[in-house]
């Protein structure tokens, strides 16, 4: 357990601990005051660039691929998204509902397919993001602009405030979960299997799609799209949209992000009521992640769904909302 904590708030996709050292450098601003400079992680820059070039090339393969392959790629995208939204986000980061072992195992596998860091690291960064939102301790601080909050934060070593504040939070609940520990221990192997091998081999083996098309469409394109959809929650949903629940915070209600991120775009609501399993006011429009959790509840795999009372929501709207809803 101590070893798991020692790896600390240091890594991002494609990084190892050495690249995310808490040490930084200082530089003088034009006003002469010291400011913190984060060092660029060039390996991340190169790999992410190649990934996106591969995704653009993948678009050219769509007309040549079988329809079943495109459907499979979309199903893999949905599973990937659920591993983040229903798994790492609403279950493990916010404890907004409880899931029985079979569902936790499925969500952990789906999270490995997402390849956005293991559950422990994802939740650690997300809890720091909520507690210190839009400050230097926020891993993807939207006050630093769209590019930084979308992808730029992965191109630099973490700000020392992110690391220092992250060390002070309690992650006992995550370390006590054997599913989280298992996924963390075997994360690299599970990513290779879930993110690349299975999505590529299924179309090739079952309906005779070429390995080339399978790899670029079901793995590269699907992975790149899922990354950008998740990043839009950090960027667009913190900059564009209305704020009916709290006009004093940055997160917004963004319908475009909601469509792509299967229900995660009701971001002003979520940051106002982070404990709510629906991450939106019940009855609001398009929220497939909530539908999935409700279906799992019907199957008996989910219990203790937490919700914000209607009276609390209305009172908060009246007190701090921008009047848009």
Structure classification? mainly alpha
Give the helix proportion (percent range): 55-70%
* Largest sheet entry: 2 strands, antiparallel
Q: Give me the Rg, rounded.
A: 20 Å
Number of DSSP helices?
15
Choose one word for the global shape.
Answer: globular
- Number of DSSP E strands: 4
Strand order of the largest sheet: 1-2
Output mean pLDDT.
90
| Topology order in helix (H) and strand (E) letters | HEEHHEHHHHHHHHHHHEH
How far is the first residue's CA from the last residue's CA? 46 Å
Strand content: under 5%
Would you write up a description of this structure?
There is one protein chain. The chain has 325 residues and is mainly alpha-helical. It has one domain (42-320). It contains 15 helices and 4 strands. It has a two-stranded antiparallel sheet with strand order 1-2. Strands 3-4 form a two-stranded antiparallel sheet. Helix 2 packs across helix 11 (211-234).
Quick overview of this protein structure:
The protein has 325 residues and is mostly helical.
Outline the secondary-structure elements.
Blueprint: H1 2-6, E1 25-28, E2 34-37, H2 42-61, H3 67-93, E3 98-99, H4 101-114, H5 119-131, H6 146-150, H7 160-167, H8 172-175, H9 178-185, H10 187-207, H11 211-234, H12 255-260, H13 267-272, H14 288-298, E4 302-303, H15 310-320
Antiparallel strand pairs: 1-2, 3-4
Helix pairs in contact: 2-11, 3-4, 3-5, 3-11, 4-10, 10-11
Describe the structure using short key phrases.
single chain, 325 residues, mainly alpha, two-stranded antiparallel sheet, 15 helices, 4 strands, 4% strand, disordered N terminus
């Amino acid at each position: 357990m101590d070893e798991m904590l020692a790896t600390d708030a240091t890594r991002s996709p494609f990084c190892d601990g050495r690249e995310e050292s808490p040490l930084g450098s200082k530089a003088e601003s034009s006003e002469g005051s010291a400011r913190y400079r984060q060092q660029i992680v060039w390996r991340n820059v190169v790999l992410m660039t190649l990934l996106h070039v591969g995704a653009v090339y993948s678009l050219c393969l769509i007309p040549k691929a079988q329809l079943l392959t495109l459907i499979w790629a979309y199903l893999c995208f949905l599973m990937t998204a659920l591993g983040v939204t229903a798994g790492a986000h609403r279950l493990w980061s916010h404890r907004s509902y409880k899931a029985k072992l079979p569902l936790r195992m499925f969500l952990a596998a789906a999270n490995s397919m997402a390849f956005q860091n293991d559950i422990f690291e994802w939740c650690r960064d997300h809890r720091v993001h909520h507690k210190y939102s839009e400050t230097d301790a926020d891993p993807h601080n939207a006050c630093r602009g769209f590019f930084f909050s979308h992808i730029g934060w992965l191109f630099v070593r973490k700000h020392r405030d992110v690391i220092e504040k992250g060390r002070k939070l309690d992650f006992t609940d995550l370390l006590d979960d054997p599913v989280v520990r298992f996924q963390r221990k075997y994360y690299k192997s599970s990513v290779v299997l879930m993110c690349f091998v299975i999505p590529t081999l299924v179309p090739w083996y079952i309906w005779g799609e070429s390995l080339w098309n399978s790899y670029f469409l079901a793995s590269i394109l699907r992975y790149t799209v899922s990354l950008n959809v998740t990043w839009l929650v950090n960027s667009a949903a913190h900059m564009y949209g209305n704020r009916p629940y709290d006009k004093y915070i940055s997160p917004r209600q963004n319908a475009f992000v909601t469509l792509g991120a299967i229900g995660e775009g009701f971001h002003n609501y979520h940051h106002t009521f982070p404990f709510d399993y629906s991450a939106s006011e019940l009855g609001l429009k398009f929220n497939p992640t909530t539908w999935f959790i409700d279906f799992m509840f019907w199957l008996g795999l989910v219990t203790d769904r937490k919700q914000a009372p209607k009276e609390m929501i209305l009172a908060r709207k009246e007190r701090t909302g921008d009047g848009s809803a």
